[in-house]
Amino acid sequence: xxxxxxxxxxxxxxxxxxxxxxxxxxxxxxxxxxxxxxxxxxxxxxxxxxxxxxxxxxxxxxxxxxxxxxxxxxxxxxxxxxxxxxxxxxxxxxxxxxxxxxxxxxxxxxxxxxxxxxxxxxxxxxxxxxxxxxxxxxxxxxxxxxxxxxxxxxxxxxxxxxxxxxxxxxxxxxxxxxxxxxxxxxxxxxxxxxxxxxxxxxxxxxxxxxxxxxxxxxxxxxxxxxxxxxxxxxxxxxxxx
Length: 241
Fold this sequence. Notes:
Elements: H1 2-13, E1 16-19, E2 23-29, E3 36-43, E4 48-51, H2 59-68, E5 76-80, H3 86-89, H4 92-99, E6 102-106, H5 107-115, H6 127-137, E7 149-151, E8 164-168, E9 177-181, E10 185-187, E11 192-193, E12 199-200, H7 207-216, E13 224-226, E14 233-234, H8 235-240
Parallel strand pairs: 4-5, 5-6, 6-7, 10-13
Antiparallel strand pairs: 1-2, 2-3, 3-4, 8-9, 9-10, 11-12, 13-14
C-alpha cells in the first residue's frame, strides 16, 4: 500500500494524472505557498464534467491541462463545485465564459460565490482573519458568479452524461457536497483529505455536522475516494486509519 501511495503522489504532483474511469486528476498550486488543490475532469457520455476549478492564480495552468485532455470550448457539460471556497470555485465563472457549460453547486454555498465571501454562511472567524483572507485570497468581481444549477443531496447527474449522484456533506461548509459515481468513485471536496494520511479535513465549520457526514459514508458503496487536497485513497484505507 505504501508503494502504491508513493506512486500516486508522484503522478499527482506531476500535474495531470490518468486514472480509472476516464478520470484526469489536476493538481493546482494555491497562492502564498498554501499547498495545492485538486480538480477532477470526468469524461461524460458526450463531453466532460469538471469537479472543482482551483484558485485564480493557477488559471493558465488549468486551461492548459484541460486543453491537453481534450476539454475544449463546447465540450464542458457541467462545472461542479463541491463548496464555495476560493480554491474550489475561483475559476468557475471564467471557465463558464471560455468553455461553456453550466455551474452547479448547493444553494447553501451559493452566496459565497455571489458576493465573494468565504465566511458568509460560516461561524464568524476572528476579526483579523475575516479582514485579511478576502484581501489576500478572496474573489475579485470577475470571479463571482451565480450558479446555473442548484444541486442537493440525491441529485442525479445523468442529464450531464455522468452516471453519478450528489451526496450532501455539510460540515466544512453548510453547502458542501460530494459526487458518487455508479462504480464507487467518490469526490469528497474538503470533508476528507490525505495530505499526510487519509482522514477528516483539517478545517470544519460545524464539527458535529462533519462527523455525521463522515458516518454516512459507511452506508454508501464507495471504492475510491478523491479528496480536494492530497492523494486518492481507498475506502478500506480510510476505515483502517
